[in-house]
Amino acid sequence: MALIVQKYGGTSVANVERIRAVAERVAKFKMLGHQVVVVLSAMSGETNRLIGLAKQIQAEPDPRELDMMVSTGEQVTIALLAMALKDLGLKAKSYTGAQVRILTDDAFTKARILSIDEAKMRRDLDSGHVVVVAGFQGVDEGGNITTLGRGGSDTTGVALAAALKADECQIYTDVDGVYTTDPRIVPEARRLKTVTFEEMLEMASLGSKVLQIRSVEFAGKYKVKLRVLSSFQDEGDGTLITFEENDNMEQAIISGIAFSRDEAKITVVGVPDHPGIAYQILGPVADANVDVDMIVQNVGHANTTDFTFTVHRNDFAKAMSLVKATAATVGAREVTGDDKIAKVSIVGVGMRSHVGIAKKMFETLSKENINLQMISTSEIKISVVVEDKYLELAVRALHQAFELDKATA
Amino acid sequence: MALIVQKYGGTSVANVERIRAVAERVAKFKMLGHQVVVVLSAMSGETNRLIGLAKQIQAEPDPRELDMMVSTGEQVTIALLAMALKDLGLKAKSYTGAQVRILTDDAFTKARILSIDEAKMRRDLDSGHVVVVAGFQGVDEGGNITTLGRGGSDTTGVALAAALKADECQIYTDVDGVYTTDPRIVPEARRLKTVTFEEMLEMASLGSKVLQIRSVEFAGKYKVKLRVLSSFQDEGDGTLITFEENDNMEQAIISGIAFSRDEAKITVVGVPDHPGIAYQILGPVADANVDVDMIVQNVGHANTTDFTFTVHRNDFAKAMSLVKATAATVGAREVTGDDKIAKVSIVGVGMRSHVGIAKKMFETLSKENINLQMISTSEIKISVVVEDKYLELAVRALHQAFELDKATA
């Protein structure tokens, strides 16, 4: 007998039929003798509908009141699932975040979980109930309803698994696991049986939007065994996210290829090469709440240097005008920009101990005549920026070069 | 400065525009220096939508889970109103029933309020906030969400007014007060400036569905000054519900004419006239959860009597078959039924001390050649059952005979 936390996202509870399907899956686990805690999101589209309603009232909805309102989305789905479970003859009880005291700070719309009171859930589990908990929400010290921000239901699932010391936290989604890359681009892309926590972090932040990144960090911190599965398939073990490299002795050097085409780059040419210049350029950009991704500065010559960074394509115009203003004051020669770029990254814990990975990546792209505009590396990934028309070509070439279509142990 | 509790029903918060209109009305009271607590229903139609969803999952939805779900309707409107108030520059805070600890018993879907913790609301009011509370809902000792049953938001309003010792509880609805009768039938019908608590009870139970009857009882018990007003008109003082007859020295003898066309009557003919027969006939009907309204049994002759009662028209077929089964076992001659009837009642505390009211009523109806099928009286009302095609005629004739179109002091 195991204690399993299962989290289902909005598409898995989008309508009455899907809620029934979730109930049937939960019932199977119960029949096998497991204890099951279910965490649910709102029906897909519901959170956006509620936010839209709020914005009709207040252009910038009050965060406390917004949380009060959007938290109702999960409250509806947990009640419906509890009913569906009872309809199958199971014992079930639904709880809001406040009812199982998922205590958070008071940062409305982006609260962080501080603690969970697992006693009530434990009691229900021990008396044979399926416990159904609203994801995405909690309560602050003052009793106000808070929400964890988009994708927060994943975090709720992991946090409950940690609090209950569950044997496994299963994240059900509309894909059946983590792939070596996007199968829409590379049909040979293969589902990974396991992926390390750190790889997952790199993959998630690079655009493999299977899991919310915060939940992965959370799982890492509390050593929660996390598994990504499809809620639309009955078979398959999904992808297990592991926290120790030793779990994966036979791990391939490279686990996957992530990419993003939502990027734009901005280069400040001929910047006087003295301390503080990066701060002067990026300060106003950060102040305007524009996230900066890659930052590259090369060695200078003749007392000037070139400084390049990437931002989300949507922020390109805003960032350009900010940087142009700064460039004038710091005496840079000019500012150039390009929003027709894409980022391609190879990710794998294996590359730590293997030389030649970067060489093989650059060689592969060179053979395809793809020019590298920027290069950035970390312990377990190498990212390059290329002209966006080469994105698919680059991903396919790398997938083949690193033999990601071939199964490993 | 007064402390006012205002309750707005579903049609008053049916959409964004109406919620804004409510906010503007609340703002006016705030500007006058009053403290305001607002109680809201769900948007009209929302509760039914949620119940419909539940019934797709479970034919008889689990009551605890149903309450968990339908309570979200008010949670959305309170958040939206708080936003609208803030948009007008006011300080406002919304609370669910659980958050202001509207403690109820655990009779899900029809819970009764036990107590309210007014400390939090008092603190907010004293710091200049408008307090916006979800109607219709509470929380039981175990922390489970409960609802008070249909129309329960009126009860929440009155209960909050009682707990806070408010100066007045204003119930905003889609009519601007209590009328002498339905203006759709009698265009000369007049809004009553005041109506006594007992008259209101009779009017409410007789079909003047302005206020939920439980809330009126509640107001009577705690001596809450209750006023019915229109949320769609800016002017008008509505109708004040009073609790002491002395408040109405100049009160007309008759306050209003109530009626219902949703009735059906069942007569058991030739029942052996011995003790316990009424119980034997009505027992199975009550067990089947069919509400019985009027009950009339006349003096018997030849050791038998006729026994007649009325039920809601929707329950007619069910009640008939139950009574027919009973009639056979108790040895009654036959059972007859009629669902083409209507009930007309005159209501007024004044009739207690005035003779001749019944005579005038019967005389008026007689002049119109309307046959009376049943008669039933209480301290402050006289009800008659007539063929339903005479309903409008009877109401108009009585309205004129008792000069209800003429204003009193």
From TrEMBL, chains A, B:
Residue ranges of domain ACT in the record: 266-340, 346-409
Gene Ontology terms describing biological process: homoserine biosynthetic process; lysine biosynthetic process via diaminopimelate; threonine biosynthetic process
Residues that, per the record, bind ATP: K7, Y8, G9, G10, T173, D174, Y179, R184, K209, V210
Enzyme class, first EC level, given as a word: transferase
One of the Pfam families matching this protein, by short name: ACT_9
Annotated positions binding substrate: T47, E74
GO CC terms: cytosol
EC number assigned by the record: 2.7.2.4
Any one GO molecular function term: aspartate kinase activity
Catalysed reactions, semicolon-separated: L-aspartate + ATP = 4-phospho-L-aspartate + ADP
Tagged with keyword Transport: no
Sections of the chain in a coiled coil: none
Family classification: Belongs to the aspartokinase family.
NCBIfam families: asp_kin_monofn (TIGR00656), asp_kinases (TIGR00657), PRK06635.1-2 (NF005154), PRK06635.1-4 (NF005155)
Protein name per Swiss-Prot or TrEMBL: Aspartokinase
Native source organism of the sequence: Thiobacillus denitrificans (strain ATCC 25259 / T1)
